[in-house]
């Protein structure tokens, strides 16, 4: 008769020992894997930091030129700037919004203070190239930006609701939860509130920090009284369309200005045709409500049709007068106060004035 070695108790004990050994081995392998991944991540972070701190060289600028579609003038400007100031890797650092803000502000003031003893025209030209570079970089980022859901909209941001007659009402994102958006009750610039019907679908306009604009389709869920002025709760939206992209960043403004009609004369010089703009003497007062380096919006009681040239007198810095010629591309009516908004694109503006507008938009001047 044959007998198996060991008892059932010993077999269970051996099985427990084997389980402990296997668990220990697996745990050790997991620790090794985690440690390996941490080293890889730290290595990548260190490598990226080392690249960011590396001085920008010619090869880097050539890659930047291709990436952002820079002109030869802009490329040469960067080459000279980096050669003189030993600027850290722009190819990496231009991806940082904070770096871009500090970089362009620093060199704006550097040229404005005329540290290179340039003529006035040379200073304005340098600053114009600097702003053109910023535009190229920002527009490139806009083209890559996307908004998949309203969940990504930060609290505190402004949204705009347009009613059936295209009146604009502003509201703020008070709270952004996983289930819905809590907004302040939309109101216009006359502090008049607008409350779309509960369960109705509405469209909201949103502009990101990069300037990219979106239209969101949401449903009004309910109104609540958690704040003194009340709140509007709307559903989240995945139905988001990219709105018409603007080339230039705009800023809201509230300055008076004067404007007048313009007489145009077409002058032919050889193969070239030049338009001469002559402002008429009669002036009208309006309110400048929006401004960019490419155009502006003016509120007025006059109903002026589109496709007309207009001469505008304004003061961008509050110290000196500026003059521009624009073309009215659209006129919209505000039935709340019986006024009209002229949407204008600039067609004749000097470099110094455009630079001052850029400075105002980016808050380099107050």
How much of the sequence is in beta strands? 25-35%
- Structural class of the secondary elements? alpha+beta
Q: Compute the gyration radius: what is it? A: 30 Å
**Helix content bin:** 25-40%
Number of helices: 7
| Main sheet specs | 6 strands, antiparallel, barrel
Element order, helices and strands? Answer: HHHHHHEEEEEEEEEEEEEEH
Strand order of the largest sheet: 1-2-3-6-5-4
pLDDT < 50 runs, ≥5 residues: none
> What is the 3D form?
flat
Straight-line N-to-C gap: 104 Å
- Overall number of strands: 14
| Overall average pLDDT | 85
In brief, what are we looking at here?
This protein has helices spanning 8-53, 58-68, 72-85, 90-93, 97-112, 120-144, 351-361; strands at 158-162, 168-176, 180-184, 201-207, 213-224, 231-235, 240-242, 251-269, 272-279, 284-291, 295-300, 309-314, 322-334, 339-348. With 366 residues, it is α+β, with helices and mostly antiparallel strands.
Characterise the protein shown here.
The chain has 366 residues and is an alpha+beta fold. It contains seven helices and 14 strands. The protein has a six-stranded antiparallel beta barrel with strand order 1-2-3-6-5-4. The chain has a six-stranded antiparallel beta barrel with strand order 8-10-11-14-13-12.
């Amino acid at each position: 008769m044959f007998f198996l070695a060991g008892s059932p108790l010993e077999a269970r004990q051996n099985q427990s020992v084997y389980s402990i050994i296997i668990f220990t081995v697996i745990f050790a392998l997991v620790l090794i894997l985690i440690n390996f991944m941490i080293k890889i991540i730290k290595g990548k972070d260190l490598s990226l930091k080392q690249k960011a701190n590396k001085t920008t060289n010619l090869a880097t600028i050539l890659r930047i030129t291709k990436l952002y579609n820079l002109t030869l003038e802009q490329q040469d400007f960067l080459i000279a700037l980096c050669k003189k100031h030993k600027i850290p890797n722009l190819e990496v650092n231009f991806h940082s919004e904070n770096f871009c803000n500090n970089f362009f502000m620093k060199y704006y003031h550097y040229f404005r203070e005329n540290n290179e003893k340039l003529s006035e025209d040379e200073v304005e030209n340098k600053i114009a190239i600097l702003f053109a570079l910023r535009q190229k970089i920002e527009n490139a980022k806009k083209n890559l930006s996307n908004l998949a859901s309203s969940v990504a909209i930060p609290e505190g941001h402004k949204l705009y609701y347009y009613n059936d007659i295209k009146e604009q009402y502003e509201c703020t994102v008070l709270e952004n939860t996983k289930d819905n958006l809590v907004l302040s009750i939309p109101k216009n610039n006359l502090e008049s509130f607008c409350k779309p019907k509960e369960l109705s679908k509405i469209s909201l306009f949103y502009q990101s920090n990069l300037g990219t604009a979106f239209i969101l389709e949401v449903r009004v869920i309910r109104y609540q009284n958690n704040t003194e002025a009340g709140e509007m709760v709307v559903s989240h939206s995945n139905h988001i369309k990219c709105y018409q992209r603007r080339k230039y960043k705009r800023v809201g403004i509230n300055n008076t200005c004067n404007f007048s009609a313009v007489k145009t004369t077409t002058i032919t010089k050889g193969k070239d045709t030049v338009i001469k703009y002559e402002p008429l003497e009669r002036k009208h007062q309006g309110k400048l409500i929006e401004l960019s380096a490419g155009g502006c919006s003016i509120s007025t009681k006059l109903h002026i049709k589109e496709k007309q040239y207009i001469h505008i007198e304004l003061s961008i810095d509050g110290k000196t007068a500026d003059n521009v010629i624009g073309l009215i591309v659209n006129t919209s009516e505000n039935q709340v106060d019986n006024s009209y908004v002229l949407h204008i694109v600039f067609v004749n503006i000097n470099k110094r004035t455009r630079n001052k507008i850029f400075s105002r938009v980016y808050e380099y001047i107050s």
